Amino acid sequence: MKKVTIYSTPTCHFCHMAKDFLKEKNIAFEDFDVSVDLEKRKEMVNKSGQMGVPVILIDNNLIVGFNKPKVIELLGITE
Question: Residue 1's pLDDT is what?
Fold first, then answer.
């Protein structure tokens, strides 16, 4: 199983869409709320170079925003 990490905020619509999609597909993920976790926010910016959320890591592949086709491709699942 691939390691999935999401850096998100509670008010981000695309963050909710990404997490809902992963839950629907029974994909386990680790979620960090970068609105309150300053260390994880810094980690996210260092990895992505941006403040935008969501930032999704699938193994070592980074996606900024909820790019559903890319998530599906990297996870090797069907829509």
Answer: 82
Long-range contacts from 65-74, C-beta under 8 angstroms, 24+ separation: 65/14, 66/14, 66/15, 66/17, 66/18, 66/21, 68/21, 71/18, 71/21, 71/22, 74/2
Beta bridge partners of 4: 58
Domains of the chain: 4-75 (3.40.30.10)
The model's pLDDT over 13-46, given as tens digits with 9 standing for 90+, comes to: 999 999 999 999 999 999 999 999 999 999 999 9
